[in-house]
Amino acid sequence: RHPGFRGPAYVGLGAALAVDGCLDARIIGDAARAGRHAEQDLKKVWHLLARFGRAPVILPAGG
């Protein structure tokens, strides 16, 4: 989503890093520590997440 912000390559990288469709700071940090992706690429993925990410939806009990 939002490929015009940092470019479609970073949207794709974020999608590839996502675990069960979720991407968060821990996952990006794990990717950085693994050293399989350029740090600047991960930084741009973080920018996408910080700008366009959203908080998880918390459903009421029983909902």
Description:
There is one protein chain. With 63 residues, the chain is mainly alpha-helical. It has one domain (3-52). It has 4 helices and no strands. It has helices at residues 3-6, 8-17, 25-34, 39-52. Helix 2 (8-17) packs across helix 4 and helix 3 packs antiparallel against helix 4. It starts with a helix and ends in an 11-residue tail after the last helix.
Gap between N and C termini: 28 Å
Helical content, roughly? 55-70%
Shape: globular
Assembly level: single chain
Number of domains: 1
- How many DSSP-defined strands? 0
The secondary structure category is mainly alpha
Output mean pLDDT.
84
Rg, nearest Å: 13 Å
Compact summary:
The protein is an all-alpha fold and 63 residues long. 60% of the residues lie in helices and 0% in strands.
Task: Using brief descriptors, characterize the structure shown.
4 helices, 63 residues, mainly alpha
Question: What's the topology here?
Answer:
Layout: H1 3-6, H2 8-17, H3 25-34, H4 39-52
